[in-house]
Design brief:
This protein is an alpha/beta fold and 311 residues long. It contains eleven helices and twelve strands. The strands form two sheets. The chain has a seven-stranded mixed sheet with strand order 1-2-3-4-5-6-7.
Length: 311
């Protein structure tokens, strides 16, 4: 996998125009113009719970008498549109924000929301990585940083529901969280789950690991039932059946790569085996077969203890 994601990662995933894709190299004003055509659409999921789709990671929304909670916030130029979509749901102003991980297409609106007084929450590593930035993303402004962080998870009692936020170690990154509304039976998996639009992106440079993504899918399946509505980080809404298929794909590919490594096969030899061919079907996917195989191959070269991922 190349350098860590740029702030246009989700635009690639969602098939946005080339104009949007070049936004990371533009000034703020030019960047705002690039996102001008993006529309935010809402889909109600349960009483007081909805999902917003736009040009970035899918956004979960909980709203009611205790205030509006967002799960992720896409890109900074979209904040006004996101707030308008929240208002159209009949919800009050955003009061709380949970980041599922640190990538810019999920945290780009943090500064705007933080400046307006929104309480930002995330895993410890999300705050750490936002502070540091990387080659593509500058260090975040103080207003963009989570002010409440956790190591294993946190439980929120808001809008008549219990919101369980649970850390999944070394998966898509080292700071991923699953967010589950117990009463509404809605789960937001962030980029632990890419549904139908691309093969998974494993950010090795941010502590990601293929086995952690598999462990997270296994954990999520213990929390879900046949009626659970699952919000993926990218792609359309999903069911438990979709997540089972995703889990099975991860399990199959990891096993194939692990077996090949045990036989002494090089990365190039494993790529030539095309172990993900049956799932590598979207020509516009952000992550295609060879990139995914490489990430799995390199993941398996790193130590990983499954017992550390049980909560």
């Amino acid at each position: 996998m190349p350098k860590p994601i740029s702030r246009t990662f989700a635009a690639l995933l969602l098939g946005a125009s080339p104009l949007v894709l070049s936004a990371c190299s533009e000034s703020n004003a030019q960047e705002a113009d690039r996102f001008a055509a993006v529309q935010i659409s809402a889909e109600p999921l349960a009483d007081g719970v909805a999902v917003l789709f736009g040009a970035g990671g899918n956004i979960g929304v909980s709203y009611g008498p205790d205030g509006t909670v967002l799960i992720d916030d896409q890109f900074a130029p979209l904040t006004d549109k996101i707030q308008a979509a929240v208002k159209d749901l009949g919800a009050g102003p955003v009061k709380y924000l949970i980041n599922t991980h640190w990538h810019w297409d999920h945290t780009g609106g943090n500064e705007n929301l933080g400046q307006s007084g929104v309480m930002i929450m995330a895993h410890d590593h999300v705050r750490d990585r936002l502070i540091k930035g990387n080659d593509n993303v500058p260090p975040a402004a103080p207003e963009a940083l989570p002010v409440i962080t956790y190591h294993d998870g946190i439980k929120l009692h808001l809008n008549g529901d219990e919101v369980h936020v649970q850390h999944m170690k070394h998966a898509h990154t080292d700071g991923d969280s699953i967010v589950f509304w117990k009463k509404a039976n809605v789960m937001h998996m962030g980029d632990l789950f890419f549904n139908k639009v691309t093969l998974p992106f494993i950010d090795l440079s941010s502590g990601g690991n293929a086995r952690g993504i598999l462990a997270a899918a296994e954990k999520a399946l213990t929390m879900a039932d046949d009626d659970t509505k699952i919000i993926p980080g990218h792609g359309p809404m999903a069911t438990k059946t979709d997540l089972i298929a995703y889990r099975d794909m991860m399990k199959t590919v990891i096993a194939a790569v692990e077996k090949a490594q045990g036989e002494g096969k090089s990365l190039q030899e494993v790529k030539a085996m095309k172990p993900v061919a049956q799932w590598d079907v979207n020509p516009d996917a952000f992550i295609k077969g060879d990139a995914f195989v490489e990430a799995v191959y390199k993941s398996l070269q790193k130590p990983f203890h499954a017992e550390d991922h049980q909560h």
